[in-house]
Design brief:
Elements: H1 11-28, H2 37-50, H3 55-58, E1 59-61, H4 65-74, E2 78-81, H5 84-89, E3 97-98, H6 104-113, H7 117-127, E4 131-136, H8 140-151, E5 156-162, H9 170-178, E6 184-187, H10 194-209
Parallel strand pairs: 2-3, 2-4, 4-5, 5-6
Antiparallel strand pairs: 1-6
EC number: 5.4.99.60
Enzyme class: isomerase
Domain Cobalamin biosynthesis precorrin-8X methylmutase CobH/CbiC: 15-206
Length: 211
């Protein structure tokens, strides 16, 4: 099967994707000149997926994010997402991609404790022995829960892509993640969401396959 590039699998698709990449680079080259090749590739994919060059200004990665993230995906460690839509967008990964948002244990825990299902799903994942990369595109409560569980030693996390979108708690949760020692990628402010989360993790997966 012919490999895909940025979702392309035909000559016309490759041509469009290549032209799109040229346009993206022309828009953000100056903004990304201090990034490593891997970091720049991740930002390019985010901008390409959102058609929003501002992501070159607001996407921030810890110094160890790429290293720890690549180690995890290269070893085939689990990827955990906050919602099913993010899980559905992750492709070409040979490891397991998990989401517990609709798990019966999650629904029960959320009902008994009155936390959001997204936060409860993180607890369930930890109880199931999760160890790998967390990808959060929508739920700030899930990101807060990850940070808390890592801090207490009750969850093993290699790296976190924390890009929840919204005006309630999203910016605050990402700023808090930046203040931790967890290897991370965030988008500062309220912007983020499923397309950003998917672009970031798929870029990491793609880099690992081409090393």
């Amino acid at each position: 099967m012919k490999p895909t590039f940025m979702g392309a699998s035909t000559k016309q698709g490759y041509d469009i994707a290549a032209r799109s990449r040229e346009i993206v680079r022309s828009l953000i080259d100056e903004k990304t000149k201090d990034l490593t090749a891997e970091e720049k590739s991740i930002v390019e994919r985010i901008v390409h997926s959102t058609a929003d060059p501002e992501y070159a200004d607001i996407t921030c990665m810890s110094n160890d994010f790429v290293l720890r993230g690549l180690e995890a995906v290269s070893q085939g460690k689990d990827i955990l997402t906050d919602i099913s839509m993010v899980k559905a967008g992750i492709n070409r990964y040979t490891g397991d991609v998990k989401c517990y948002i609709n798990h019966e244990k999650t629904i029960e825990l959320a009902g008994n404790t009155e936390v959001t299902r997204a936060a409860a799903a993180i607890e369930v994942a930890a109880s199931e022995g999760f160890d790998g990369v967390v990808v959060i595109g929508n739920a700030p409560t899930a990101l807060w829960k990850v940070m808390k569980m890592v801090e207490t030693g009750s969850m093993n996390v290699s790296a976190v892509i924390g890009v929840p979108v919204g005006f309630v708690g999203a910016a605050e949760s990402k700023k808090a993640l930046e203040g931790t020692s967890i290897p991370h990628l965030v988008t500062q402010g309220p912007k983020g969401g499923t397309p950003v989360a998917v672009a970031a993790i798929n870029s990491l997966i793609n880099i690992s396959k081409n090393q």
